[in-house]
Specification:
The complex is a heterodimer of chains A (244) and B (266). By secondary structure, chain A is an alpha/beta fold. Chain A has a single domain (4-235), classed as Rossmann fold. Chain A contains ten helices and nine strands. In chain A, strands 5-6-7-3-8-9 form a six-stranded mixed β-sheet, with helices on both faces. A three-stranded antiparallel β-sheet of chain A has the order 2-1-4, covered by helices on one side. In chain A, strand 8 (208-213) and strand 9 form a beta hairpin. In chain A, helix 6 (114-126) packs across helix 7. Chain B is an all-alpha fold. Chain B has one domain: ABC transporter involved in vitamin B12 uptake, BtuC (Orthogonal Bundle), CATH 1.10.3470.10. Chain B is 80% helix and 0% strand. In chain B, 50% of the residues are buried. The chains are: A alpha/beta (244), B mainly alpha (266).
């Protein structure tokens, strides 16, 4: 059985006057955790958007779970930066926010039922937010809101979870809680792709790494013998050999 | 004291008011949350052009208003995409065009100012049987479609990117929402008047947002508040011989200000 979750081949993307991604190649198997590191504007978020289909890529190919994005959309979860994701004055409860992402399971016009409510309870329990189920999402702290957004991504049982800077603007204690949740999901077999400015945290959690730097990118298919110093060197523009 | 329900026109007025008060918050809530509140104004000014057009060519003015309002919201959607981050320009352009069109078309009407005036400020007590049936049908359509698409409308209103990623056809749902807005504005212009319709879209929702703890309760309370405003407005206007549209809007505004003041003190 092929356990490949995502394969990216010769991916290229340019913004007007700026080449952002050049010939990006990597693949992930079930249970892999890919960390993506790089300076602002290096292409980390662009790569996430290309995988999600939010931006059209020029050349290359992205295969997810053996198919095209539109066929497997329901199997992909996405957590963005907290600040990008919603208006904090929006009158919605935690439950309403999470259950809304069951759309891929339900389809148009169908109403939510008891099984859906049970699924919401399960994912809120998983992220430790059960007791806040009926609270307004805007009344929660940044860390709590981000845990709710992780629950929202998980409610549709994704096989691939994409996270774009999920811990930006969140206090240190909450970052630790969120990373703990993410690592537990990964240990249970979920494939994760995460961009993050917090290199030590990502190095600790991920088993694979993409580092976007001045001359393109470096791919490490194992983070076990990779040090922070070497990552700093790569980000500073010093070429290193790929590890495999 | 006169029995208000002894008059056929008042019974018709109450039926119409109750239906439109049920429909307006179903549209008002998503447009307020999507920060499109100004679309009510732009559409209502185009509706006035449709009313003048209807009177001019001899079709029911509400039908004319529906047609022009739908054209207006679709134009706003098309223009918004062209202006990117300055998308509010689209609303102003369409509103200006609606006013210009109304000014020109009303010039061709016999007793033009009197006819247009009744739609600018509302004339619920002069509603005809055909308009009553049209109001019932269109209000029922708005309520039915917004309830049918409840979870989709919630999802795109809360976070359009995530909604799109989860496979919701955001473009189609937004277009449906815009068309329903046009229908609601056109029909409701008969009650509160085209110049005040956006207040009926916005005020019950805004008041409800101050006192509600979920999307669902905000919607339910918006409908309840819209019903209270319109029914009490009809009673008060009847017994004090005031214009119903203005009375409904001022009651809503007073309740909103009082609720906001109480919330601020807490």
């Amino acid at each position: 059985m092929n356990n490949e979750v995502i394969r990216v081949e010769d991916l290229n993307f340019n913004y007007p006057d700026t080449a952002v991604l050049r010939d990006v190649n990597f693949n992930l198997m079930k249970g892999d955790f890919l960390g993506i590191i790089g300076a602002n504007g290096a292409g980390k978020s662009t790569l996430i958007k290309l995988i999600l289909g939010l931006l059209p890529y020029e050349t290359g190919k992205i295969t997810i779970l053996g198919g095209e994005l539109q066929d497997v959309r329901a199997k992909i979860g996405y957590v963005s930066q907290k600040a990008n994701s919603f208006n904090t004055d929006f009158p919605a409860t935690v439950r309403e926010v999470v259950i809304a992402n069951l759309f891929p399971r339900k389809g148009l016009f169908k109403r939510f039922n008891k099984a859906d409510e049970k699924k919401v309870d399960e994912v809120l329990d998983l992220v430790g937010m059960s007791e806040y189920k009926n609270k307004l999402i805007g009344s929660l702290s940044g860390g709590q809101q981000q845990r709710v957004f992780i629950a929202r991504a998980l409610v549709s049982d994704p096989e691939l979870l994409l996270m774009d800077e999920p811990t930006v603007g969140i206090d240190a204690a909450s970052v630790a809680d969120i990373m703990d949740i993410i690592c537990r999901l990964n240990k249970n077999g979920m494939t994760i792709i995460m961009t993050n400015h917090d290199t030590p945290t990502l190095l600790n959690a991920a088993n694979k790494l993409l580092i976007f730097c001045e001359h393109g990118y470096e791919e490490f298919v194992s983070t076990s013998d990779l040090s922070l110093e070497r990552i700093t060197d790569i980000l500073a523009g010093k070429r290193v050999h790929k590890h495999g | 004291m006169d029995n208000i329900f002894a008059y056929d026109f008042m019974i018709k007025a109450f039926i119409t008011a109750i239906l439109i008060a049920a429909a307006t918050p179903c549209i008002g809530l998503p447009i307020v949350l999507k920060r499109f509140s100004a679309i009510g104004d732009a559409t209502s000014h185009s509706a006035l052009g449709g009313i003048a057009f209807g009177l001019l060519i001899g079709i029911n003015p509400i039908l004319g208003a529906v047609i022009f309002s739908v054209i207006a919201v679709l134009s706003i959607e098309a223009l918004r995409k062209r202006f990117g981050k300055y998308s509010e320009i689209a609303t102003v352009v369409v509103m200006s065009a609606g006013i210009g069109l109304t000014a020109i078309l009303s010039g061709f009407l016999k007793n033009g100012s009197a006819n247009i005036n009744s739609f600018m400020f509302g004339s619920i007590v002069t509603i005809s049987d055909f308009e009553l049936i049209l109001t019932i049908a269109l209000s029922a359509l708005v309520v039915f479609v917004t309830l049918l698409l409840y979870k989709e409308i919630f999802a795109i209103t809360f976070d359009e990117t995530s909604a799109s990623l989860s496979g919701i056809p955001c473009g189609a749902i937004n277009t449906i929402l815009m068309i329903l807005t046009a229908i609601t504005v056109a029909v409701a212009s008969r009650i509160v008047g085209a110049l005040m319709i956006s207040s009926l879209l916005v005020i019950p929702t805004a008041t409800s947002m101050l006192i509600s703890k979920s999307y669902k309760s905000t919607l339910i309370r918006s409908v309840a508040l819209a019903e209270i405003f319109t029914i009490s407005g009809l009673f008060i206007s009847f017994y004090l011989d005031l214009r119903p549209g203005g009375t409904i809007v001022l009651i809503g505004t007073a309740v909103l200000v009082i609720t906001a003041s109480i919330k601020r003190k807490k």
